[in-house]
């Protein structure tokens, strides 16, 4: 996985054994959900990617299944490598090029500032306000802003409200909270130059930085990370028009928690949902036991097949005994105060 959100690079235990990496140190790390954990750490003599060598590089040993349960990966190329060389990321052709010298590209050149933990920060303007963003290619979603610091900027805008758990990181699920996603997309600018791609804004709590910019914003561009020049270039903008369903959803998220399938997130404005049902255990899904799914990956495949047909979803909550019928539809919104 390519993720500059990790300050160091990562391998799992199985790959560490194959590569004979001796993790002779331990350290505490804080993940994207601000949760601390102790992990094993080592300095790897040599890492080679497409003929480019990286020497004396810091690595953590982490269980990659914790945050990538449906993807079989050996590890993460983190900022300890990404910040040492230049990258051209071509989302359309699913290809990454590396170079010791900076890539030349037309487009908007954005200055990046690297800080002590290897994080890359950029300044962007939204609704006329300059906001510092962490560039995080491992973060799903696009623009995510601090609710505590910046919600007033979106007062009187229509938003979808959700309550529950919104993130999955190296230490598992995040905390229960309220968060908002704007119904409309907003212009994003750099040094007063408006970028081609607008984006919806997610407002959430407990963010380390005022803003984050993630993979869903970048994937419509050809992205150049000229790390040696502390520069990012966004060019060849090609909007993705494949998402025919737009903003439609069931208004909930279900996830296995301690071997029980629970509602971990919901939109309380949907008439058939109640706030009190958050973290309730689901017994039946579409009139069949939900534990027929061996893991979250099988469940996601099933939900994907339902959304393609835009079929309704029927849940029976254990102990509560209530049956919920959810339509795949545009979510109801409220005015942000």
Please explain how this structure is put together.
Helices cover 9% and strands 41% of the residues. With 337 residues, it is mainly β. Strands 9, 10, 11, 12, 13, 16, 19, 20, 23, 24 and 29 form an 11-stranded mixed beta sheet that branches. The chain has a 5-stranded mixed beta sheet with strand order 2-3-4-1-5. A 5-stranded antiparallel beta sheet has the order 7-6-21-22-8, with no helix packed on it. The radius of gyration is 21 Å and the shape is globular.
- Helix/strand structural class: mainly beta
**Main beta-sheet annotation:** 11 strands, mixed
* Average pLDDT reading: 92
Based on DSSP secondary structure assignment, what is the total number of beta strands?
Answer: 29
Beta-strand fraction estimate = 35-45%
Put simply, the count of helices is: 5
**Distance N terminus to C terminus?**
39 Å
Give the % helix. Answer: under 10%
Uncertain segments are none
């Amino acid at each position: 996985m390519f993720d500059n959100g990790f300050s160091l690079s990562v391998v799992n235990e199985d790959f560490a054994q194959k590569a004979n990496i001796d993790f002779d140190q331990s350290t505490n790390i804080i993940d994207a959900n601000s949760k601390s954990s102790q992990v094993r750490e080592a300095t790897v003599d040599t890492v080679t990617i497409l003929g480019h060598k990286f020497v004396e590089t810091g690595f953590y040993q982490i269980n990659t299944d914790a945050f990538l349960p449906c993807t079989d990966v050996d590890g993460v190329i983190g900022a300890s490598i990404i910040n040492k060389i230049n990258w051209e990321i071509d989302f359309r052709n699913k290809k990454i090029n590396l170079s010791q010298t900076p890539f030349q590209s037309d487009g908007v050149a954005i200055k990046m500032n690297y800080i002590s933990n290897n994080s890359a920060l950029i300044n962007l303007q939204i609704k006329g306000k300059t906001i510092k963003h962490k560039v995080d290619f491992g973060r799903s979603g696009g623009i995510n802003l601090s609710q505590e610091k910046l919600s007033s900027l979106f007062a009187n805008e229509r938003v979808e409200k959700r309550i529950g758990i919104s993130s999955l990181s190296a230490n598992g699920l995040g905390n229960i909270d309220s968060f908002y996603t704007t119904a409309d997309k907003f212009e994003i600018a750099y040094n007063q130059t408006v970028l081609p791609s607008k984006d919806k804004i997610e407002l959430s709590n407990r963010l380390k930085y005022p803003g984050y910019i993630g993979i869903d914003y970048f994937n419509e561009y050809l992205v150049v990370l000229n790390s040696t020049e502390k520069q990012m270039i966004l060019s060849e903008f090609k909007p993705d028009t494949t998402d025919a369903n737009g903003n439609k959803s069931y208004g909930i998220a279900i996830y296995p928690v301690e071997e029980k399938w629970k509602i971990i997130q919901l939109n309380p404005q949907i008439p058939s949902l109640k706030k009190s049902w958050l973290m309730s255990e689901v017994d039946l899904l579409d009139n069949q036991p939900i534990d027929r799914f061996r893991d979250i990956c099988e469940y996601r495949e099933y939900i994907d097949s339902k959304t393609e047909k835009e079929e309704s979803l029927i849940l029976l909550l254990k102990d509560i005994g209530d049956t919920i019928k959810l339509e795949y539809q545009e979510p109801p919104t409220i005015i942000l105060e």
